Each structure stands twice: as C-alpha cells, then as structure tokens.
UniProtKB/TrEMBL annotation:
InterPro entries according to UniProt: 6-PGluconate_DH-like_C_sf (IPR008927), DUF2520 (IPR018931), NAD(P)-bd_dom_sf (IPR036291), OxRdtase/DH_put_Rossmann_dom (IPR019665), TM1727-like_C_sf (IPR037108)
Organism: Pseudofrankia inefficax (strain DSM 45817 / CECT 9037 / DDB 130130 / EuI1c)
Top-level taxonomic group: Bacteria
Domain called DUF2520: residue spans: 142-265
Chain ranges of the Putative oxidoreductase/dehydrogenase Rossmann-like domain: 2-122
Name recorded for this polypeptide: NADP oxidoreductase coenzyme F420-dependent
Any Pfam family matching the protein: Rossmann-like
Gene3D superfamilies, per database record: NAD(P)-binding Rossmann-like Domain, ProC-like, C-terminal domain
Length: 295
C-alpha cells in the first residue's frame, strides 16, 4: 500500500531516505525545511513535494520522518505535536526519526496527539553529495528499529520497501548500539587517516593507496572470521616490537600513542579471552604497554 509521507529536514539522510521512499512508490507529499539550501535541494530531488510548515505537514501524512540533527529532534517533535494549536499529527500517524543514538524519548510530545513513534536508523554512511547514490546504498542496509508496538509494522514495512533489513533495538540499548557503530565506522576512518599520515611522514607517496589492499583485506577477514583474523605483533606476542613502536611513535607523533596503546590492549584482551594468545604472552605485552603510560 502506498503511504503519504512527509519529511522534516532535507540534509544528507533526509534526502537519501526521501528519494528512496519515492523510488519505492510512496507519495512524498511534502517537506518542511529551514534553510534556502535545504529548500533548493528538496526542489531538485522531490519537485512534486509541497513545502509546508511542520505542524501542517504533520496533519497531511501517514508517516512523518524527522530527518533533523540529533539535538534538534526534541524541539522539532514539540513543533510537530503543536500542543494547543491547529494541525499536528492525526491519531495513528507514525512519527519517525533516523537517529542512531536516540530511541523513542525525543518523540514523546507526539504521543499526546495519538501518534505512534519509531526510530528507524540506517546503519550506513550517507554523504549527501549524490542523494540518488545514497538512496541506492540503502538497498541491502541494515536498519536499527525501535518503535511503539502499533508503529512496528509500518517501520518494518518502510525498511523492507527500501530494500533493507530490520534489526530491533531495545529502547534502553540505543546509546550502546550507536556507540558500537561509531566505534566501528567513524573511528576506523580516523585510524586509517592516522596510519596514512604516518606513512606520508616517512616519505611514502600515495600512502592511502599503499594501505588500501591491506585495510580492505583486514576488514573483510575480521568481519568474516572475528578475532581469529587478527595478525601482527600482539597476535604473535612480540612485545619487543610493540615497545619499539611506542618509542618511535612517541618521537614522531605522540598524539597517536594513546590510541595505539588502547587498541593494543583491546586486541590483547580479546585474543587472550578467545584462547588465541597465551596468558604469559599477554602479560608481557601489557607490561610493554604500561611502559608507555609511564613515559
Ligand atoms: N548522514 C548519515 O550518514 C546518517 C546516517 C544514518 C542516520 N543519520 C541520522 O539522520 C539525521 C540527520 O542527519 P544528517 O546527516 O542528514 O544531518 P544534516 O545533513 O546536517 O541534515 C540535518 C537537516 O536537519 C535540519 N535541521 C537541523 N536543525 C533543525 C531545526 N532545529 N529545525 C528544522 N530543521 C533542522 C537541517 O536544516 P538546514 O539545512 O537548514 O541546516 C538539515 O536539513 C540524524 O539524526 C542522523 O543521526 C545520518
């Protein structure tokens, strides 16, 4: 069944999800945006959608997607609910957001209007440079969904229409769920950047290209085989190599030392727990890493 959908905010995620929902056959009846830049983007990518104030848009749709920044969700939900005023969602409307961090809490103002809440978070990076390409990336993406029971079928259906897969996330687990994703994705980018900078610093041209095959294979192996895929000095128990790394990094780029130490400790702990690193070797590695803390 075709649903009438409205989108509040037309940034990176809002544009991708709106374009994908329209491609899936839903009626994108309207958008509500703040800046001229967002209005221009919406006109380009959703030319048939009307531009409406939030509370008016909320009245006209079956599903209202709040695609605003995390911190704006609470205040925007108050505007959607429009307490004491005309407009606002009709009873049974599903008001959804796309945030990973938040569960249903910020959407609570709409409950007083008889609306149902859903958090529908695509576990995907949507850069916003090409909303059509971002929309395509949602196909095959997993979505972390937390929803009021009455909104769950609609949330699941929207994810299925986008070609995605639903995993249900308990409301109280939302922050740790998001922390896990940020740890795995955003900080991976910081790590790759730091590794490339260190290689550039020793004169290697096109350091990212030099690292790319290794990083891709390491990631593929880790996602497929878990801790057993770990290679390198911690896996081998080469505490001397780890100590030499720390001394070299302290001299060349001390800002990366805390990250190196923390990740080496994490790797040692995981490998030891899964029986892939003997306890004495883990203890020797920890002693080398403790030395960095004292330096
Ligand atoms: N991008 C991703 O990779 C990604 C992936 C998964 C989930 N998400 C989630 O999607 C949501 C949006 O993120 P984004 O990356 O799309 O951010 P974004 O590109 O910065 O877009 C945010 C949009 O919200 C609007 N906005 C912000 N504050 C507002 C307010 N107080 N009232 C009305 N509109 C407001 C902005 O309007 P202006 O254009 O006027 O500034 C902009 O259109 C977030 O909850 C985020 O966690 C993002």
């Amino acid at each position: 069944m075709q649903l009438d959908i409205g989108v509040v905010g037309f940034g990176r995620a809002g544009a991708a999800v709106a374009v994908a929902l329209a491609d899936a056959g839903h009626r994108l009846v309207g958008v509500s945006v703040r800046s001229a830049a967002a209005a221009e983007r919406a006109e380009r990518w959703l030319p048939a959608a009307q531009h409406l104030p939030v509370a008016e848009l909320a009245t006209r749709v079956d599903v209202l997607v709040l695609a605003v920044s995390d911190d704006a969700l609470g205040p925007v939900a108050v505007t959607v609910a429009h307490p004491g005023g005309p407009g606002g969602p009709r009873p049974g409307t599903v008001v959804a957001h796309l945030s990973g961090r938040h569960g249903l809490g910020p959407l609570t103002p709409v409950v007083a209007r008889g609306a149902y809440r859903a958090a529908i978070h695509p576990i995907m990076s949507l850069a916003g440079l090409d909303p059509a390409a971002d929309a395509g990336r949602l196909r095959g993406t997993t979505f972390g969904v937390t929803a009021d029971p009455a909104a769950t079928p609609v949330a699941r259906r929207l994810v299925a229409d986008l070609g995605g897969r639903t995993v249900e996330v308990p409301d109280e687990a939302r922050t740790i769920y998001h922390a896990a994703i940020v740890l795995g994705a955003n900080y991976l980018a910081a790590l790759a950047g730091a590794a490339a900078d260190l290689l550039t610093g020793v004169g290697i041209d096109d350091a990212r290209a030099a690292l790319a095959p290794l990083l891709r294979v390491s990631l593929d192996n880790a996602l497929r085989d878990g801790d057993a895929a770990t290679t390198g000095p911690v896996r081998r128990g080469d505490a001397g190599t780890v100590a030499a790394h720390l001394a070299a990094l302290l001299a060349a780029e001390p800002t990366v030392v805390p990250a190196y130490v923390s990740l080496a400790r994490l790797a040692a702990q995981r490998l030891e727990t899964s029986g892939l690193l003997a306890a004495p070797a883990a203890a020797t590695l920890r002693a080398a890493l403790d030395g960095a803390d004292r330096a």
